[in-house]
Amino acid sequence: MDCCLCDQSPHFFRPRNSICMSCFEGAKEILEFASRLDLEEEAEVEAKIAASQPDSLKNDKKSTSKTFTKPIQGKGLADAIKHIKQLEQAVGTASKQISYLGALGEAFTEGFHADLELATDDGLSIQVHKVIMATRSSVFRTMLEMDSYKEAKNSRVRIPDISHVELKHLVEFMYTGQLRLEALQDHSPGLMFSADKYDVPLLIEICEAYLIDTMNPKNALEVLEVATRLSSATALKDAAMSTIVHNSESILFSREYEDFAMKNPLLAVRVSQSVMQQLKSRLFLKPASAQ
After folding, report:
1. Phi then psi dihedrals of residue 107, to 5 deg
2. Residue 150, Cα to own-chain centre: how many angstroms?
3. Which residues of 239-256 are buried (b: 16+ CB within 10 A; e: fewer)?
4. Which residues make Cβ contacts (< 8 Å) with residue 95, sequence separation at least 6?
5. Best CA proximity match to 212, nearest among 198, 195, 226
6. What Å distances lie between residue 289 and 187, 280, 281, 282, 286, CA to CA?
């Protein structure tokens, strides 16, 4: 089971409320160790206080200590046990949730009672369920509300501008709410574009966070091109433009930028303007002695 503590996946798409048994046992041991330290420290403090008091007050202090310290210690242990039980319940609940979503994923993989076919431009298709597609995407919901799709038992929809592999990853996410790391590594720009087109907000957030986290001079032009085509990707666009500007000498004189400028002339002008603004800022901030 994926764990929100030890899972090797990037932080932005780790499960939030699941914990593996190894981490659970470790947390349990830490709580028990902390309780023992609290008890030892409290006993040491009481001993020092008792040693500093006159003999006439020691008996009173002992009775007072017995009255007040034991309930406090018991309460601390009770809280620790309560937290452990809460962790156990969280593990059980997360396991049930994963199993429940896994059943939906199995329905997609096996094609149980599929009633909709999604066809890509490369001639391949995927069998899905109308109710899942309509629930996960407002675009599909509007499409499937049309009478022609309502009346047909088995319908076929053409999905342009997306490869069969990317469509498969998109549909898998819509069924399970999960995305494999390999899919993000290989198809995050295309998946983000498709998620924006078909209105799958959570997938947009995951892809955007991954692209920002892995931004570098080699992929900045592609990311900027994708971000410009999306309805809402301001943070991603700014991150890509900043990367290009700060690496302008290596990017602007590359073959990739020539191809980029041919396909996106207006966007290339904006890149040039941003680079010029950056150069002006550096010139104005340059010390007078260096000039």
Report:
1. -60, -35
2. 35
3. bbbebbbeebeebbeeee
4. 1, 18
5. 226
6. 50, 17, 17, 14, 9
What integer pLDDT is reported at residue 79 of this predicted model? 63
Residues facing 159 on adjacent strands: 120
Predicted pLDDT at 240: 93
Whole-number pLDDT of residue 9 = 56
* Residues in the chain where the model's pLDDT stays below 50: 12, 64-74, 291
Q: Give the model's pLDDT for residue 48.
A: 67
Distance of CA 2 to the CA centre of its chain: 13
The DSSP-derived string for 63-83 is HHHHHHHHHHHHHHHHHHHHH
What radius of gyration, in Å, describes the C-alpha atoms of the chain?
30
Residues 6+ apart with CB under 8 A from 114: 127, 128, 129
Domain range summary for the chain, segments of one domain joined by +: 11-107
Quickly count: other Cβ atoms within 10 Å of residue 118's Cβ.
Answer: 22
Predicted local distance difference test score (pLDDT) of residue 152: 64
pLDDT at 247: 92
